[in-house]
Write a structure and sequence with these properties.
Blueprint lengths: L1 H4 L25 H11 L4 H13 L3 H14 L4 H13 L3 H14 L5 H12 L3 H14 L4 H13 L3 H14 L4 H13 L5 H11 L4 H13 L3 H13 L4 H15 L3 H14 L4 H14 L2 H14 L4 H10 L1
Helix pairs in contact: 2-3, 3-4, 4-5, 5-6, 6-7, 7-8, 7-9, 8-9, 9-10, 10-11, 11-12, 11-13, 12-13, 13-14, 14-15, 15-16, 15-17, 16-17, 17-18, 17-19, 18-19
């Protein structure tokens, strides 16, 4: 259950620079090349260095990102957004102390901005210092009641400490503030799915409105339909995962299970389990259920073969042993 509840603890790298340091040239084929040319013409323009550092960080190029943001800070030491970007870089480098220090510097420069406080809450949530995560989230909320992220981090902190009731309260507040927040809706969808509540469907669909092809949201929605015996919709969702080659083996397996157990369409079940095995040759449940499919079709020789293969993958696999005993 706990792994379900923690499904969507996602590191949200919020926009790190101030609005002025956003990359306004995202439509350029090579923004790094473009910004480098601009910097040659305006070598003292701190915004250009901040823009380039942001792109370097997004690309995982930490060293040039670090150099650029420090150059930008030297040119303008009073831009809070640059310290937030610097904090992100330090966090990626595993330097927690400097990451915190950079955020506190940003907060001192812009004490009426909630963003540094939100980032501090996020950081302490990721390092499992939940009291501090709550503290900075509450400070951010005092500055601005209408921002979803601090409620999300409070909710996740409560979830991590197994206070599900308070987690749901804060996550629902976050969702009410921003119905398009994927992480919030996905977490609520997963929570309500875990408690077998039909409201899960609403939150999962809201998550899919923002990320229609996201495999986690699609898979949970498919499982929800399957659990509720809505096999038509479940198969439709799994077909999307298969088509997009996302979560393929589980989508093939779940489809096969529906065809085998619920619909008794053994040819389709065979097709789905074979595809699951092609995706993962050690997928013992798929191997066993392919044997079970052959048994249902009356092809006992093939059934025996796949039960034995399941036992080769996982010695003494109980279901496969039972299958062999049935055949014997």
């Amino acid at each position: 259950m706990r792994h379900i509840l923690k499904l969507l603890f996602i590191i949200l790298i919020l926009s790190s620079c101030s609005n002025d340091t956003q990359n306004k040239n995202s439509n350029i084929d090579d923004p790094i090349e473009f910004l480098s040319a601009e910097i040659k013409n305006e070598h003292d323009n701190y915004k250009l260095y901040g823009q380039r550092a942001t792109i370097y960080l997004e690309q995982g190029k930490i060293d040039p990102a670090f150099r650029d943001v420090n150059t930008a800070i030297k040119l303008n030491p009073d831009d809070a957004g640059l310290y937030i970007l610097l904090s992100d870089i330090y966090f990626v480098l595993g330097n927690k102390a400097n990451s915190i220090s950079s955020l506190k510097k940003a907060n001192s420069l812009e004490p009426n901005s909630e963003l540094p406080l939100i980032k501090l809450s996020e950081l302490f949530l990721m390092t499992q210092e939940y009291d501090k995560a709550h503290f900075f989230a509450d400070k951010a909320i005092l500055l601005n009641l209408n921002v979803a992220e601090p409620y999300y981090y409070k909710g996740m902190a409560y979830l991590e400490t197994l206070d599900t009731a308070k987690a749901i309260i804060n996550l629902k507040i976050a969702s009410n503030i921003d119905t398009s927040n994927y992480a919030v809706n996905m977490q609520l969808g997963a929570l309500y799915y875990g408690s077998n509540d039909s409201i899960s469907e609403m939150y999962l669909k809201q998550a899919l409105n923002e990320q229609p092809e996201n495999p986690s949201a699609l898979y949970y929605l498919g499982m929800l339909y399957q659990d509720n015996k809505d096999f038509k919709n479940a198969l439709h969702i799994y077909s999307k995962l298969i088509k997009n080659k996302k979560s393929g083996k589980r989508a093939y397996y779940n489809s096969g299970y529906i065809y085998l157990v619920e619909l008794q369409d053994y040819d389709k079940a065979e097709e789905m389990f074979k595809q699951a095995i092609i995706t993962d040759g050690k997928f013992v449940e798929a191997v066993y259920n392919l044997g079970r499919t052959y048994e249902a079709k009356g092809d006992f020789e093939q059934a025996r073969e796949y039960y034995n293969k399941a036992i080769e993958i996982l010695p003494n696999y109980p279901l496969a042993v039972q299958g062999l005993n049935r055949l014997d």
